[in-house]
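anyone seen this seq b4? input:
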Amino acid sequence: MSTPHESHESIEMYLKSVLELEGTEAPVAISRLAQRLGVSPPSAIEMVKRMAEQDLVTHTPYKGAELTDKGRKRALVIVRRHRLWERFLTDKLGLPWEDVHDYACRLEHTTASVVTEALAEFLDHPATCPHGNPIPDANGQVITCNTIPLNEMEIGQSAMLVNIAYEETILLDYLAKRSFFPGTRLTLEDIAPYQGPFMIRIDDRTEALGREIASRIYVTLLPED
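predicted toks r here
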């Protein structure tokens, strides 16, 4: 049996995950939500039903879950805490860019609103987390920019890396070792056939990125020379 704290933390993890996944599909399929959280589909369905009873999501059988206004507001608060902590851990404590996501996941559930706003003030209200994702303001407003996933680029196009979507430590570690950071300029040199990798040129080297990874890197296209 879960404790009240565990239940609270689990609900917040679900809310944040639904918010992130709604960026590519709505409603969010329970199977995708379960995969994202590393739980079984029956466990995800049970939690989604509990959240629906609290008016945090709407659940349509065989289709998925969507945040209600109440759920979206709460999810944005969690995302704000998370991304501010990432910024603090990277900028002020000098922790590795690829490691701070996991630390922030632990801190986001135990941070009071007054601490969140003091943290934002201390950091001078940053616009993005270290991975380029926008930080919602205190009113839940999010500034977005015109980006596309790298896997939608055409061969020969150049772009600037803006953000990494659906952060996971294993993904961030992989990208950090290959110098894929926000602000990095890159060019799509080729796409291997038969669902092969994307060949990306950065400076004087070429890196191969699988299609799943490429779909989670968002860029803005640069004008042609």
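The first strand starts at residue 57 and ends at 60. The chain has a mean pLDDT of 92. kinda curious what u guys think
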